[in-house]
Write a structure and sequence with these properties.
Protein name: CARDB domain-containing protein
Signal peptide: 1-22
Largest sheet: 8 strands, antiparallel
Helix content: under 10%
Radius of gyration: 35 Å
Keywords: Plasmid, Signal
Number of helices: 2
InterPro entries: Ig-like_fold
Organism: Pseudoalteromonas xiamenensis
Length: 606
C-alpha cells in the first residue's frame, strides 16, 4: 500500500511540474513583424516586384502555415473617426505563400508579387494575414492580421508597406517585334507563268504590339517595302472582306500585354515588276520592310516614335525551270511544280508551320511517261516546344514500257508512321479513305494567375485523314484531298487547394486545312484537238486554310478574405471568392484563305 501511495505521489508531482512548466512557456503565436518593398516605392500596373516580410513564430515548432498578402487603397483608410463597420471595396489579393516546417523564432522571408492591371493609381498599403483559415492553434489570434481589438495595432501601427502606384494619364501604343514566317521572300520573275491566283500568300508573319493607358481603341497597320530608295505600299489580305486592303485593322484586348497581330501580304504584278527591275541578278539581296501602327482616333498617342518598326529579309526571284533539251530528235522534259512553306504564330505561345508541295513531270522522249508527286507537313510549337503533328506523301509514276509504273504513299502522325502503301505494276487504280482522331500533349509550362502559381500542360486534339484516288491506264491521274487536318488546342492543369482552385479555358482552333490535288497526264495518238500523237497534262493544287483562331487562357478562383474597416483600420470580417483570368492568346484567324497554289494544263507533241 505504501508503495502504491509513493507511485501516486510521484505521478502527482510530475503533473504539477508539467503544469508549472507549461505556465512558464511563451504563448503560442504567429505574427508578421515587418513588411517592406526594399528600395522600391513607386510601381506601375502589372509590374512585378519583391516583397520582404518577417514572420515571428513563438511557442510552436515544425508548423505549416499560409500567409496571404493584400493591397488596399489609402482612400479606404482615411476616415479614422468612423466606428461603424464598413466593407472595403478597393482591395486586391497580391500573393499566397505556403510555408512548411517552420521552427520557432523570427524568419526573414520574401515573395515575388505582381500588381494587378486594373488599379486606379495613388497610394496603397500592402498588408498580410497569417494563417487565414485558422489551421494552427494559437493562444493569441488577434495579431494574425490588422485588427481593431489589438491594442498594439491602434492608430494604424499594424505592419504594412506603403507604395505609390503610377498610372499614365495618356495612352501609348508600341510595336515591339516583327517576325516573318519564312526565311526568305521568293517571287516569280515577271516572265514566269506561275499558274496561281492573285490571292496567293507571298509574305506571312506577325507583329507583337503593346498598349499602356486606359483608353483602348482600334488601330491600323500599314506596311511598305523599299524599292530603289522609295517606300511603296503593300496590301494585306482580309478574310472578312475577301480582298486585299492597304491597311490592317486591329482592336486591342484589355487583358493582354504582348498582343499578336498576324498579317498575310501578296505582291501584285506592278510591284513585282518594279522589284525585278531593281534586284534582278541580286539573289539574296536584303529587302527592307517598314510597318507603322496608327491610333484610329488620332487622340494623342504618347510616343509615336515607337509605332514604327523596320526589318529586312533576303529576296530571290524564281526564273522558271530550265528544259532538258537534247538533239533535234529529243523533246524537252516538262516540269510543273509549286511549293509552299510558311509558319504562323508566336513560338513562345502557339505556332503552326505548313509545308505543301506538288509536281507533275512529263518525259516525252525515250520511254515516254509522267510522274506525279505531292506532300504536306504540319509542325506545331507550344510554349517553344517543337512537335511534328502530321505528314503525308504520294508518289506515282507511269511509263509506256511499264517499267517504274506504280505508286507509293506514307502518312506520319506525331512522328510515327501509321500508314504506308506501295505497288508497282503496268496498270493500277487505288483509292484511299483514311481518317484518324488523335490527342497529344505537346508541352508543359508554369504560370501565375493572380496570386496562384499553376502548372499547365497543353496539346492538340482533332481529326485528320486523306481521300485520294490514283491510277494508270494510258492516263496517269491522282485527285482528291491529299490531306485534311482539323486540330484544336486543349489545356489541362490547375490547383485544387483549400484556398484556391484554377483551370484552363480554351476556345481555340489551331489549324483547319484541306490540301487538294487534281492532276493527270495522258498519252494519246490522236484527239479532236490534235491529230498528232501527243501527251496531254494538267496539274492543280488548291488549299483551304484557317490557322490559329480563338482564345486560350487560364483562370484562378481564390477563397479569400472579406475586409472591413473601423477607425481607418482594416481587418478580416468574413470570406469571399475572387476570380482571376490570364489570357495567353486571343486573336482572330492569323491566316484564313482558300486559294489555288498552282493551276496549269497543256500538251506536247510526240
Amino acid at each position: 500500500m505504501n508503495q502504491i501511495r509513493a507511485i501516486s505521489l510521484s505521478l502527482l508531482l510530475m503533473l504539477l511540474s508539467a503544469c508549472q512548466f507549461s505556465e512558464n512557456d511563451p504563448p503560442r503565436n504567429l505574427s508578421i513583424a515587418n513588411i517592406n518593398t526594399g528600395p522600391v516605392a513607386n510601381l506601375e500596373q502589372n509590374e512585378t516586384f519583391e516583397l520582404f516580410y518577417d514572420l515571428d513564430v513563438a511557442g510552436l515548432s515544425d508548423i505549416d502555415v499560409d500567409v496571404h498578402f493584400y493591397l488596399i487603397h489609402n482612400n479606404e483608410l482615411v476616415d479614422t473617426q468612423n466606428s461603424q463597420e464598413q466593407t472595403i471595396e478597393d482591395v486586391h489579393q497580391l500573393a499566397i505563400v505556403s510555408l512548411s516546417q517552420l521552427k520557432e523564432g523570427r524568419h526573414a522571408l520574401s515573395v515575388q508579387a505582381t500588381l494587378p492591371d486594373n488599379l486606379k493609381g495613388g497610394q496603397y498599403q500592402i498588408i498580410a494575414h497569417v494563417d487565414p483559415d485558422n489551421m494552427v492553434i494559437e493562444d493569441i489570434e488577434n495579431d494574425n492580421a490588422p485588427s481593431t481589438t489589438n491594442a498594439s495595432y491602434a492608430n494604424g501601427q499594424y505592419p504594412h508597406a506603403d507604395i505609390e502606384v503610377e498610372i499614365q494619364s495618356t495612352h501609348d501604343y508600341e510595336l515591339k517585334t516583327l517576325k516573318f514566317g519564312q526565311s526568305a521572300l521568293i517571287l516569280d520573275a515577271p516572265h514566269v507563268d506561275n499558274g496561281n491566283q492573285f490571292h496567293h500568300a507571298d509574305l506571312i508573319g506577325y507583329l507583337v504590339a503593346d498598349y499602356s493607358g486606359s483608353a483602348l481603341d482600334k488601330v491600323t497597320v500599314k506596311a511598305e517595302v523599299d524599292v530603289n530608295g522609295a517606300w511603296r505600299p503593300l496590301h494585306f489580305w482580309s478574310a472578312e472582306e475577301t480582298q486585299y486592303l492597304e491597311q490592317l485593322s486591329y482592336s486591342f484586348k484589355t487583358v493582354l500585354s504582348d498582343q499578336h497581330i498576324g498579317f498575310d501580304i501578296a505582291f501584285n504584278d506592278e510591284l513585282s515588276q518594279a522589284l525585278y527591275q531593281t534586284f534582278s541578278g541580286q539573289n539574296g539581296a536584303e529587302l527592307a520592310f517598314r510597318f507603322t501602327l496608327t491610333d484610329s482616333n488620332g487622340d494623342g498617342d504618347l510616343n509615336s516614335d515607337n509605332n514604327v518598326i523596320e526589318q529586312s529579309i533576303p529576296l530571290y526571284f524564281f526564273e522558271g525551270h530550265t528544259a532538258n533539251v537534247g538533239t533535234q530528235n529529243r523533246l524537252a522534259n516538262i516540269k510543273l511544280a509549286q511549293s509552299y512553306d510558311k509558319s504562323y504564330g508566336d513560338q513562345s505561345k502557339f505556332s503552326i508551320g505548313v509545308d505543301l508541295s506538288g509536281q507533275l513531270l512529263i518525259v516525252p522522249a525515250g520511254d515516254p511517261g509522267a510522274r506525279i508527286t505531292a506532300e504536306g507537313n504540319v509542325e506545331a510549337y507550344f510554349f517553344n516546344a517543337q512537335n511534328t503533328l502530321f505528314g503525308i506523301s504520294y508518289d506515282g509514276s507511269a511509263y509506256v514500257s511499264g517499267l517504274n509504273t506504280g505508286y507509293s504513299s506514307e502518312m506520319t502522325i506525331f512522328n510515327n508512321v501509321v500508314f504506308e502503301d506501295e505497288s508497282y505494276t503496268s496498270k493500277f487504280e487505288k483509292s484511299w479513305t483514311k481518317s484518324w482522331e488523335e490527342e497529344k500533349v505537346l508541352a508543359k509550362a508554369n504560370f501565375t494567375i493572380g496570386p496562384i502559381p499553376m502548372s499547365v500542360e497543353a496539346g492538340v486534339d482533332g481529326s485528320l485523314g486523306f481521300e485520294l484516288t490514283v491510277g494508270y491506264n494510258a492516263e496517269l491521274y491522282a485527285n482528291g484531298d491529299l490531306f485534311s487536318v482539323d486540330f484544336g488546342a486543349f489545356g489541362r492543369g490547375g490547383v485544387d487547394l483549400a484556398v484556391a482552385s484554377a483551370g484552363v479555358e480554351a476556345e481555340f482552333n489551331l489549324i483547319d486545312n484541306v490540301f487538294s490535288l487534281d492532276s493527270s497526264a495522258g498519252f494519246s495518238l490522236v484527239s479532236t484537238d490534235n491529230a498528232t500523237p501527243h501527251i496531254y497534262y494538267a496539274l492543280e493544287l488548291t488549299d483551304d486554310m484557317d490557322v490559329i483562331s480563338g482564345k486560350f487562357g487560364l483562370y484562378a478562383e481564390t477563397k479569400g478574405i472579406k475586409w472591413c474597416k473601423k477607425w481607418g483600420i482594416p481587418y478580416p470580417c468574413g470570406s469571399k471568392t475572387t476570380r482571376y483570368d490570364l489570357w495567353l492568346y486571343q486573336t482572330d484567324s492569323v491566316f484564313q484563305k482558300s486559294w489555288t497554289l498552282y493551276s496549269k494544263e497543256g500538251s506536247v507533241n510526240l
